[in-house]
Amino acid sequence: MNVLGIESSCDETGVAVVQSLGAGRVPRLLAHALHSQADMHEAFGGVVPELASRDHIRRIVPLCETVLAQAGLARQDIDLVAYTRGPGLAGALLVGAGFAVALAAALGKPALAVHHLEGHLLTPFLSADPPEFPFLALLVSGGHTQLMRVDGVGRYTLLGETIDDAAGEAFDKSAKLLGLGYPGGPALSRLATQGAEDAVALPRPLLHADNLDFSFAGLKTAVATAFRRFGPSPSGQQRADLAAATQAAIVDVLVAKSLKALKQTGLTRLVVAGGVGANRRLRERLDEACARRRIRVHYPELELCTDNGAMIALAAAMRVDAGLAAPDAARSFDVAPRWPLAEV
Ligand code: KG4
Ligand code: ZN
To answer: Is the overall model pTM greater than 0.90, yes or no?
Structure first.
């Protein structure tokens, strides 16, 4: 079974084909292609939803053609069209969903709605070192920060989540304060390599709280205050130090809460997913802490950490293989801008 996956929940148009190899086997990625709108949104300092939708419309058909050509497939070889139903920007989601359902109808094939976070969560299965169930998932993206217990495909229990900003948002907002581009996560982490983590004292929100929740909104205020203290023209070193301190504060909390959740659940595998999972310092710190505790850590391949079509095609294929999905031949669809993962 060849599954075409369409991702359009935010500012990346992603298309991919995976091939299901049957129940109990990890599907194979045949091809994937991506267009990032980051350059377009950079001028506005963040994603402009209307522009995002319009750009998805421009990109989606050519990306499909590219992916099919790369995979050596004809349109008729597609057995299922999967698309992101949510969470995400309503208009952007509608582009992908509308296109996917229309394509499926034209081909006489079913369509399947996929949860964006389930896609992120399962993406490490496409890596060279795939995990095994059960595991703890640390989902860290631009919109979400969650700890999940994962017992199998579709068996997700939320253990803790952010009560305000997401980790990616904390990276992006702090980067903006430092005058770095959008998205700020990668830029901030690059600048951080030249700074000293302990040069600026920043809070570790909810670090010692007796739960698995996160809070990052206060950190952004602390970063703004520290930045103001540097005066009107901070030096390059001061900016790098503040970048390093910000990254350290976010990473400290993510590592500590992941370890706490592992201890509480007794799970011995950790899967890290979502855009912030690309962060080098987070990976170093988790690797180090988990190695000491004999916990295995799994990451998606770097290019599949941020939004992409492969994660959507993969989640659809794994749901079908697990007997969980009823591909929709009814041709009616909706999108779900807010959609808790535990409800899939
Ligand atoms: O998963 P994703 O592509 O989109 C959402 O579903 O939100 O995550 C995007 C987020 C952005 O906030 C971006 O700044 C962050 O992931 N990000 C990073 C890095 N690469 C992407 N944050 C820190 N370090 C990175 N290397
Ligand atoms: Zn995402």
So the answer is: yes
As a CATH number, domain 133-299 is: 3.30.420.40
Q: How far is CA 68 from CA 64, 198, 264, in A?
A: 6, 50, 45
For position 174, what pLDDT does the model report?
Answer: 97
Phi, psi values for residue 48, rounded to 5°: -100, 110
Residues of the chain with CATH 3.30.420.40: 2-122+304-343, 133-299
Q: Contact at 8 Å (CB) between 45 and 182?
A: yes
141 lines ligand 1 (CB under 6 A): yes
- 257 pLDDT exceeds 90? yes
Q: Is 189 in the pocket of ligand 1 (CB under 6 A)?
A: yes
- Mutation to probe ligand 1, out of 171, 283, 302, 307 (largest number of atoms < 8 A from CB): 171
Give the ligand whose atoms come closest to the C-alpha of residue 140: 1
The secondary structure element, H or E, covering residue 85 is: strand 80-86
User: What is the overall mean pLDDT for the chain?
Assistant: 96
Indicate if the pLDDT at residue 327 is higher than 80.
no
CA atoms within 13 A on the CB side of 288: 10
**108 and 237 in contact (C-beta within 8 Å)?**
no
At the topology level, CATH places domain 2-122+304-343 in Nucleotidyltransferase; domain 5 (3.30.420)
